[in-house]
Amino acid sequence: MGALQLSQWQFGITTVYHFFFVPLTLGTVWLVAGFQTAYFRTGKVKYLQLTKFFGKLFLINFAMGVVTGIVQEFQFGMNWSDYSRFVGDVFGAPLAMEGLLAFFLESTFLGLWIFGWDRLPKGLHLATIWLAAAGTAFSAYFILAANAFMQHPVGFEIDPVTQRAVLNDIFAVLFQNTAVIAFFHTLAASFLVSGAGVAAVSAWMIMKNRQVDVFRPAAKLGAWVILISAVLVSVSGDMDMKIMVDQQPMKVAAAEALYTTQENAPFSILSVGDLSGDTATTIIEIPGLLSYLATGTFNGPESTVQGINDLQAQYLAEFPQYGPEMNFVPYVPVTYWGFRLMIGLGMLAALYALFVLFLFRGGRTPKSRLFAVFNGVIVLFPLFGISAGWIFTEMGRQPWIVFGQQIVADGVSPLLTPLEVWISMIGFTLLYGVLAVIEIGLLLKYIKAGAPEAPVEDPFAEAQKDDDKQLYFAY
């Protein structure tokens, strides 16, 4: 493999690995804030215990997300310098806002939350976790806005002298419909992942007959978060699909392996073959569903979904500078199965949530071994589902790195050698392997330890007694 292919693999590996921690962090912080709010309003100690227990797990993931996210910034300069040179003035703007505004907001108030348990007044301390949660949401929004520019570039013009993209409308970049819908879809999916984590850990503790009164409300809350999030993911995903049809119709066609333009286009739940358009065989198919997902109608000319072959011919005519041999079709097996894994694994999480609510009805405590197995793996379903959706989003844009403006092959650093990429990729892989062991070990350690014991007195009482007391690390 050359430097281009190796750089693609490296960016894919590091991005997917980093993204494992993003949804857990993005959703869990809001649930922790909710537990602390319940403690603030009711004074019930079990909510304080849940706040500290899940807060500890959140902090582990947050730290890992920060460490692995730093690598992403360096790769733009090291592996993709021509891309950075071409669109850096535009792409860098929302990333700068993320670093200077959102990250400082979340890290500052998260620090106050960590160190201020018995130093800040109860209400002020509660405000810090809510502001930290808002910071994580802002951070996600700015990053998704930058990515949305790659999917649908707006708010720029090409400098005729330098041939670089120049920002001329930051509001178009930040608030285009691609960015707004992607944010709500990602946020809802993150709550789906976090709800599964809270429900699974809580149910496991209850089945071990440990702190049942503490974890029962958390298990039910996690299940309800999964169900509500599943609905929001479906609604926002439907809206995103219809935007995608207008902006990236090739991605929609590749998601179904639809090679010929069709009215009343079906949606295949399962196919066998190489998905080349010649040998793939549909086993389970729902007539008209793809047309409805793409256009909102089942029949008639309005339901037409463009096929891969027609779009390939269209792009060859639209972008003749790349030559007649240029292939504008993404790797269809990845887009096809990535799209189905995204949907299917999310649905399995929703079924698990219904199962949890059924088993815990009327004060019951489940004892099934099968349920214990589900608790051990269920958080992986939505986590892998959201990762599959991210892979679909990025690989479905291929061969473009910025849709309609620059192909991936033109974005790689020109002087980069395969050996250099091999060295960095092996190094990152080994480092990430070590970090994975540390992450899993810490999570299992603190999950097994359970929630902290109920305090004898309100931990915030000290804040009223000693105004000169220094902050210290609460964990």
Secondary structure blueprint with pairings:
Elements: H1 3-42, H2 45-78, H3 81-115, H4 122-151, E1 156-158, E2 165-167, H5 170-175, H6 177-207, H7 212-247, H8 249-256, E3 267-272, E4 281-286, H9 289-295, H10 308-318, H11 332-359, H12 369-377, H13 380-395, E5 400-402, E6 406-407, H14 418-449, H15 461-465
Antiparallel strand pairs: 1-2, 3-4, 5-6
Helix pairs in contact: 1-2, 1-4, 1-6, 1-13, 1-14, 2-3, 2-7, 2-14, 3-4, 4-6, 6-7, 6-11, 6-12, 6-13, 7-8, 7-11, 8-11, 11-13
Structure in words:
- This protein is mostly helical and 475 residues long.
- It has 15 helices and 6 strands.
- The strands form 3 sheets. A two-stranded antiparallel ribbon has the order 1-2. It has a two-stranded antiparallel ribbon with strand order 3-4.
- The longest helix has 40 residues, at 3-42.
- The protein is globular, with a radius of gyration of 24 Å.
- The two termini are 46 Å apart.
- The mean pLDDT is 87.
List keywords for this structure.
globular; two-stranded antiparallel ribbon; 475 residues; 5% strand; mainly alpha
Short overview:
The protein is mainly α and 475 residues long. It is 69% helix and 5% strand.
